[in-house]
Each structure stands twice: as C-alpha cells, then as structure tokens.
Amino acid sequence: MSVIGTSVTRKEAPNKVTGRARYTDDVNVPGTWHAVMVPSQQAHARIMAINTESAQNVAGVKAVLTGCDVAILTGDVIEDRPPLAHEKVRYWGEPVALVVAHDEASARRAAGLIEVRYQPLKVVNSIQEALAANAPLIHERISEYQVATPPAYPKRASNLADEANVVKGDVDMVWEQSAIRVQVRVKLPQVDHAAMEPRVAKAEILADGRVLIHSNTQAPYEVQKLLAKYFHLDPGQIIVQVPLIGGAFGGKATVHLEILAYLASKAVGGHAVKIANTREADLASSPVGMGLEADIGLAATKDGRLMAAKMRYFMDIGAYADSAPRIARAIAAQCTGPYKIEHLHADVYCVYTNHTYTTAFRGFGHMPMTFAIERAMDELARTLHIDPLELRERNALAPGDTTPTQARLTRSNLGDLPLAIDHMRTLIHWNGPTPRVVDDRHIRATGVAAFWKTSSSPPNAISGAIVTMNGDGSVNLSIGAVEFGAASKTTAAQILAEQLRIPLERVFIREEVNTHVDPEHWKTVASLSTYMVGRAVLDAANDLIRQLKDLAATVLRCSADDLDYGNEKLFVRDDPSIQLKFSDLALGYKYQEGDSIGGQLMGRGHFMIRHLNLLDQETGQGRPGPAWTVGVQAVEVEYDRMTHQYQILTAASVIDAGRVINPAAAVGQVMGGMNMGLGVASREVIHYDAQGQFLSNQFRTYRLMRVGEQPQEYRVEFVETPQVDSPFGARPLGEHGVLAIGAALANALSSAAEVPLNTLPLTPEAIWQARRRRLHYDTV
Amino acid sequence: MRSLTGPQAMTLTINGDARQVVVYPGETLLYTLRGDALGLTGAKPGCENGDCGACTVLIEQMPVKSCMVLTVEVEGSDITTVEGLQHAPIQQAFIDHGAFQCGYCTSGFLMVGHALSQQPDHDQGRLVEWLRSNICRCTSYQEITDAVRAVCSEIES
Amino acid sequence: MIPFDLFYYRPDTVDEALQAYGDLVRQHRHPAFYAGGTEILTRSRVQDVHIDAVIDLKAIPSLRIHRDDGQTLQLGAALRLTEVADLNLWPLLTATADRIADYTARRQITLGGNLLSVLPYREAVLPFLLMDSAKVELATQHGLQTRRFADVWDTALNLNPGEFLVSLRVDSQEARNLTFRSHKMTRLDWIDYPLVTIALAQPASGRVRAAFSGWNSYPFHSSTVDQILSDVSRSPQARAADAVSNMPMPAVSDIHGSAEYRQFVTQYTLSDMLTELEES
C-alpha cells in the first residue's frame, strides 16, 4: 500500500483542469481599490520634482504616494532599497510613485499624468562600468546601510554590495606546478523568472489593527516578519494568506509588492487595496535573475586530475542587493562543481549596476555558476583529449572529501555522481563529443555537464506541521509551504499517508497557506520542502500515533508498547482481533456507558536545520547546507554549419534523487526544468539600451520557448542513494533540471561549431559572431 | 449602426447560459469574464498583450485570446470558458499526462486543445501551430502536446 | 482594458463610418478605426496612444468581401488573417500572412490592420509590393476611391485622417501566374518579429521581384534589387550577395539581431529562395 515511490495525481489537479483552482487575483473583496505604480523612465537620475497634481484631480483617485512619504529602507540582507524611489532612481522601471484609486482604469489614467522631473546621472550599464575607476556611485551612502542579515560586507565608496571568498589549500604553489591550465571567461545576461502569473499583493488594515495581506509570495512568514519590522507592528497582527501560486522560480521570494500594498492601504485609512503587476512591471520593475561574468582557471595533471582552481565571479545584481549576498555565498561554496579541487581561490563579487535589481532564480546562482565551471571542464577535456564524461567521473567528489568550504562529505549527504554518469552513458548511448556528420550541411553533437547543489539556507531555518483528525479517522494536514506547481502539498500528504499507513485520499491538505494558523515554514525555496516539511510531517505523524496508542492503551487496558497500527486501526500485536478503529479515537473515545475520554487528537511536528554555519569571511569555511543533490545532463543537437541554426534533438538528465517519492511528478519537474534551462541558455536575455532602458518588458521582446521548440525527446533517469536524514531518503529535486542543461547545450554547440561558446544566449547569431571572431583571431 | 457610450447592459451567451452583465465599451472580454458579476476566473491574465494565451476562451468554438477582444464585440456570440468544459476528454488527458504544474496557463491550453480536438483536421503541423499560441513556463511542452495528441487521436479512432 | 471612457461605434455602412468619424472629431474625441483590435488594445493599455472612441468596421459588408471573378481578386480589409489563409485566394499572400504573430492572434488580426500597423514589419504588405496591378479601395470624405497601391505607399499606406481601407485588389492573372517563395527568418523563435521576411515572385515570363520586411523600419521593394536577382547568368549566391550590398537602405541593428547578421541571414535566405524558385 506504499504511497512512497508511487505516481500519484497532485491533490489540486481536478481544480486546475476546471478553472476552479484559485490564485491570488481570482478572489477579491468586493470594493477593493487599486494601486498602480509609476515606473521610472530613467535608469540613473536625481529626482528633482514630482508633480502629482493632475493625478490627484482624476475622479476616483484616493491617494498618491511618493518616496518622500515613505522614509524607510528595505532589503533581505542589506537594507538599501526604498519602497518608492527617494531622491534618486537607480533603474529604469523603479517605482517612483503609487496611485490609489477606486478602480484600476482611474488609477492607470492618473499614473499616466504624474510628471517626474529628472536630472540624469551617468548610467552604470555593465559590470565593467560599475568597477571602473571613478565610476559613478549608485549608492552614495553605502557605508550607512544596515546589514539586516549578516554576513554581507558592502564596500564603502564603491559599487560593490558584497564580496564572498573561498580559500583552500595552497593555490599559488600548485597552480605553478601543474602541467595543464585552462582559462575560460563566461558572460551571462540577466534573465527573468517569467512565471505565468504576474506578482500581485493585496492589503487591508482592519479597525482592530490586524493587517490582512494576500499575495502570491513564496515567503509568507518573511512578509509577516518584515512588515512587522518595517512598520513597527506585532507579527501576530499581520496575517498573510497565500493561495495557489502560478509559478514562482525564486522570483516571488522577495518581499516587494506587499510593502507597496500595505503603504497604499495605510494611505487610504486601511481600505482593501490591490496592486497587480502588469507583465511589463513584472519584467522591468520587480526583480529579475542576475547576470554573471566569470573567469575560471583550472589546473590539472596530464592525466586529467584537477589540482587547483582560480575563479572570479562578478554578479550583475542590478540596483539593489536583495538576496545577492546569499547567492554569492552559494556560488562560492559550490564553485568547483561536483569535483575535488584541493587548492582553490574563488572570489565572488556582488556588483551594483543601474539594471533592474535581482533576486533568487531557480537554482540560486548554481545555474550560471555551473555554466562557468562546466564550460571550463569541457575546455580542459578538449585540451587533454580526454572524454568529457570520463574527466568528470575521474574528478567527482567522493565520501571523505571536503567541499570548497571544507564541509565533510559522506555518502548520505553527497550521493553518487559516478553512478549517475555511468547511467548517462547508457541512457544517451554516449560515443564521445566528436560530432557525427549527417549530410554536407548538418552535423550532430552531444554535450554533457554535471552539477551539484545544496540549500544555502540560513542555519536556523524551521518548518512545522499540524495534523488534526476527523471523526471518521481521516486527517487534515496543515503546513507552511506554498504550492506553486512543485507538488509540495501532495508530497507532504504522501509522507503523512505513508507514516500513518492510510490511503492518500484520507489525507486532506489545504491548498493555501495562512500564517495565522499554519505553522511556520522558512520559505518555499531551495527545493527544501520535501526535506524540511517532510521531517516536520513525520514528527507530527509520530506524535499523532503516540496519542492514538496512548488513548487506545487506556481503552484496551494494555501498554502502548503492545500496540501496532494499520488499516486505520490500532491492534494488540499478538492478538490483532483486539483492536480499535482510528475513528473510535479521533474525537475522543466514548465508552458504552456514554462517558468519554480523550478529545480531538492532533499531532504536531517541527523541524530545524542543524549543523549549518555562516561562512567565514576570509576562507569561506563552513557548512552551507544539509546535503547535496548531484546529477549529470546531456544535450544532443543537430547543427547547420551554413546557417548556424540548430535543433535540440535530445535532452537527458540522470539525477541522484535519494529516493523518488512521486515518479511522475519527479520526471515532470526535471523535464520542465530542462526546458526552462534550455530556454534560458538558447534565447532568454534582458536587453538594456545605452541609457539603461529595459527593452525586454513584454513576451514579444523577452522570448520564451514555445511548443515545437522544445527538444524532440527527453530522457530522465534517477539513481537512488538515500539521504538518510531525509524522509524516506529523498533528496531535493525541484530546481535541478535547470542547473547544467544550458552548459550541456553550450558544450554540444561548441563541439559542433568548433568554437568555444561562452556567452549566453546561444542564438545562431551568437554562434556566427563567435566563429567570425575566431576567424579574425586565427588570421591575425 | 450600433453606438455604445458609457456602461451598457447586455446579454452574453456564456457556457450555454444567457448572462446579463453591465459592461463598459473599453472592457476586454477577459476583464468582463473575471469581474464580480460573472466570476469566471478560469481565464487568466498573463500578459494582457495577446502574447501568452493564458486567457484563451472559445468564441463560436474557436480559440480567442480574451484580452484581445472587447466584450461589446462578442455580444450575441457563443462564448465557452474553461468552466464550461463538462468532462471534456482534454481535461482528464491533461491530468493523465502531467500537462500542468502551477496550473496558471492550463485553462488557455485546455481551450486550444479542446477546440483543436473538435476540428476535422488535427495533424501534427496544425497541433503545433495552434499550441504555440500559448506559453507554459513549468512543463517541458511534451506533456501538453502528448495530452492533446492523445485526445485528438482518440476522437479520430 | 482601455483605461479611458471609450465610445464604441459599429457602423453597418461605409457612409455611417465616415460620418461617425467626423462627428467624433467635432466632439473633440480621439477616434480610431478598429477591426481586429490587437494593436489598439495593446497600445492603449500601456497608454502609448490616446484613443477614446473606436469605429468597428467589421460589420460593413464591403470590408469583408472576398472574391476572385477571374479578372480581379478582391479582399476586404476586415478579413482576419486566418480567413485570408483559409480562403487561400492568393497563395503568395497566404504564405506571407500565415507567418504573422501566432495562430490565435491571427484569428483576431485583420488584413487591413496588418497593412496599417505602426510596427515596422507589416509582412502582409510584401505581396502587394510585388504586383503592378495592386490597388487599394479607400473610403474618403469624397466617397470610395480606388488607387494604385504604389501611389498610396511610400513607407506606409498613406491615408488621410478620417479615411479607411475598404479592400485590396490585384489582377487575378498577375496574382495567379507566378511562382513565388515567402520566407520569414527570426532570431531563433518561430513566433517572433522577423529579422527579415522575404517574398519573391516571378511571373511566367518576367523578372524576379523581391520585397523585404524587417530589414529596416518599413517593408520595401527595390527595382535595383530585382534587376540583380533576375540576372540568371550569375549563381544565386552571387546574386544574393550583390543584392544585399545594393539594398536601398542599410539594415537595422536591434535586439533581434545586428545589421551584419541581418545581411548574413538575408543573403543565404535569398540564395536558397532563388535556387528553389528557379528549380520549380
């Protein structure tokens, strides 16, 4: 009857195919007013004046707010971001004013009438421009900023929000002694999460002081905490409710619109106010995913053993830091990829630019980081004439090794990359990287790349679960993880059903999260729900079983130790005919005489991450996450040597899943992840013009993959090396499909086009340009 | 000549029912459907620019992006939304093939897939051409095309 | 949603439409003729235009006309692009128009709407640029007027305020007796604005004619380019290369592609199309 390892339909599926699934903007309090933001039309400028008079005069307008009305700074790690631009704007699209009106049309009309007078400043339009001597400072008062969540080290009088370093071994000596060295420089643009549901937040302040927030956030408890902090409220006053979310990918973990919604409601006496992003605002004004430039140097022996690495990563974090310092540490801690490199120096810089600010993006920095290291690995394989899969297998980290930040690896916390690589060979009929000729124009080539990732979560991340019983013996499960498509609710229900030995249908789980009643879960990020929520659910299940046994023991006049359970019954182990149904106990036990004992049974469970540290400032030493997920991915392309156009024939992944809880859902997560990773690598890019104007603010200019452009075939396999402290051994899996697939595509195309392709996106033009540059280089 | 200014009381035929609504001439069909009076929130705003297809409904059985049509234009037309699908094979096929994760684009894809399955001709080329009107960010698209193809071939046989 | 108090008129005749426009202007409104609506809705939403009255032309029968009487092929301006393709009265137009936007969008976009779009691409223009016999039927304050397409077109169809497009006409024989190719090249995606869309047409006896969209800010046809492409004594590759260096204006650089890359793509696409055209 095991529901673990069984493909079950997600709980909310029937609602999602009937239009009955409710998302944040689907249910509104009648009479909700609308707030509309006025985006900056400059990327870097001083605000000289804002004329709101004509906007105020539009019928239906209730309030107009500007940065002068809101004297706070916000931010996850560094408090550097005013909710509404104050004194200056730092990116095109930054909210400079907020209009609240009875209806959306009036608010939009009024927003269009607000005149902002700017004095343009020199725009910092790239990492190079930000780091140049005498670069204009984006944050003049950087040294006055509060670091809300250490560590982060903003550098005074610079555009560096933070820097993270890893030092291990004696890199300088080993570097010089190594026989082979390769250098790769990669450049990746900012990209957008492009969740199909734009961000939306609603706020209402009741007369009794309670603040009701509805939002499609991945971090409802963070919204609660930060609003309480910024506006001096008691956390208990703030109730955050999150229904189903229409895709998130990290982009909904920032507390952003919730602050504006609260300010808007407060400005109109607490009336219910909604702020819903247009797609244009969702792309340009709300945070995007970082850009990255990196220099990777690898030193190896002639037989392909990695000896040393020197790396520098520059993140284009845009105008505000948000979670960039955390991402920088995640990159630093995993910078080698899943390979053993004992002598290492890596510096990761968070660089402010006048681009849209950035936040977590599926993979938390590991996707661009993996691109860098995996391009370097392929260049090393090419230089050494070693099979690229072989090179990766030979250098794979093993139990007993330590990570770049000197965390000790075990079979449980690492998994088995060599086994995954071995499966990949069979899965794609691996024949090496040499392209195969199809006809006089077309050739086929396969690229591979490997990844690893851990959670990079704070050392005190918590989760909880509450299970209550219904009179018929079925159970209700309450958790703090939101549902944005990763089936986290269904997985939690599966874990509970398995532990209680009941059918999945007997577990009822709410689609939404309400911070007032659901136990806190840190944030629904980092693919950690199965692990953290799962552990809390197991704890709650065990608590409930204990209560069932205790009550049953009393009724059956035996010791709780004599009892076992199954089929929604408790029974005496050596005589199962002595038994009670769950339903006999769920709401208390009623004796024949009518007197009763017990009460509603409810299990409570909690979980706290253990043994993690903040990384040391000098060396990076510390443990960044409870365990890693490793995997290898491959892409086969057919490439036209004349036009440089290509088709993706196959995309494949082999991932160490620890234990697959829901096979169909797991395969779907990985396939979808591969598609997203391939979209990012092949076509996605945010363009800015010379003045820093955001040019990609619609799906006409920010192109996403569509039907017919996906790989012709997907292949997904799992190996299962249990993570012993995780429910049923399961490892995180939600983000991982994206991590190395872009690097695999670049490796395939680099082989096919016979030119290193280290810049994204990999459009035919990019390949054409790279080949032209190389031709020029060869002839000079 | 029909001339409409200011709020208009009109009758729309939605999912087989005649529904009385008051609409402003500047309202898109998406806005009207999702409004308090009808509450048909299955059609989603994803871009309101005709690019993503999350708001797709059927007008006279054919797919239309409801953000790209004024409600006053479809007075008298037969409108079908996802709420009007009554155990259509496409719905179970989407569940069976795992053709959605977050579910936000699902209504739009369902409507395109359903309309296509009702067409006399739904070869592979047409299937791709219709489905590429919509965007999904979660799945790999293979699940969606598999689900639609399964329903189309079932109807054929 | 159009965030203005919109007036919506749906006239049944051309005269009513003209009358409505005049009335609205006199009332100091900002009217626009409306058919598919995609451009007006998208631009109004982001307040790129201020339109507070639309005159929906779709109910006027003469804008929905489609016929080929053997002499004249006539297509109403309010036909949807999918209708133009399904009717397939003019296969060259079908081939070009069927690559605009996406399928569902083409169920909204009208032929006239595409021809009069503010975007640079307007691919449906290309076939008309290739036909000497192409004519437009306009509704003007002086009644219906039929003019040569070439006389109304420079970089756009030049209509005066208050005028609208009723139908398009080409000579049946000219439209039918030609071999053609139409090809849209994008940065990468099937659904995207073109780096370049090329329509080639060759009458049974006559020169190759070529029209281009995406190369610059408006669709164009150039007799110099035609002349180069028609010189069958040279290889398609040589002609394509020569054509690209003799375009009447430079290629644009934008987020879809650089000017140099547009030249590269245009060259190999032209070459491939010439080869196909001459082999067929």
From TrEMBL, chain A:
MF terms in GO: iron ion binding; oxidoreductase activity
The name this protein goes by in its record: Aldehyde oxidase
Keyword Transmembrane helix part of the UniProt annotation: no
Lineage top rank: taxon: Bacteria
Protein's organism: Sulfobacillus acidophilus
Alphabetical list of Gene3D superfamilies matching this protein: Aldehyde oxidase/xanthine dehydrogenase, a/b hammerhead, Aldehyde oxidase/xanthine dehydrogenase, molybdopterin binding domain
Key words of the record: Molybdenum, Oxidoreductase
InterPro entries noted in UniProt: Ald_Oxase/Xan_DH_a/b, Ald_Oxase/Xan_DH_a/b_sf, Ald_Oxase/xanthine_DH-like, AldOxase/xan_DH_MoCoBD1, AldOxase/xan_DH_MoCoBD2, AldOxase/xan_DH_Mopterin-bd_sf
Domain Aldehyde oxidase/xanthine dehydrogenase a/b hammerhead: 18-122
Lineage: Bacteria, Bacillati, Bacillota, Clostridia, Eubacteriales
SMART domains: Ald_Xan_dh_C (SM01008)
From TrEMBL, chain B:
One of the Pfam families matching this protein, by short name: Fer2_2
GO molecular function: 2 iron, 2 sulfur cluster binding; metal ion binding; oxidoreductase activity
Keyword annotations: 2Fe-2S, Iron, Iron-sulfur, Metal-binding, Oxidoreductase
2Fe-2S ferredoxin-type domain span: 8-85
InterPro entries attached to this UniProt entry: 2Fe-2S-bd, 2Fe-2S-bd_dom_sf, 2Fe-2S_ferredoxin-like_sf, 2Fe-2S_ferredoxin-type, 2Fe2S_fd_BS, Beta-grasp_dom_sf, Diverse_Oxidoreductases
The protein, known as: (2Fe-2S)-binding protein
Organism in which the protein naturally occurs: Sulfobacillus acidophilus
Automatic annotation (TrEMBL), chain C:
Acetylation is among the record's keywords: no
Domain of life: Bacteria
Record protein name field: Xanthine dehydrogenase
GO molecular function: FAD binding; oxidoreductase activity
Organism: Sulfobacillus acidophilus
Transit peptide as UniProt keyword: no
FAD-binding PCMH-type domain segment(s): 1-175
Keyword field: FAD, Flavoprotein, Oxidoreductase
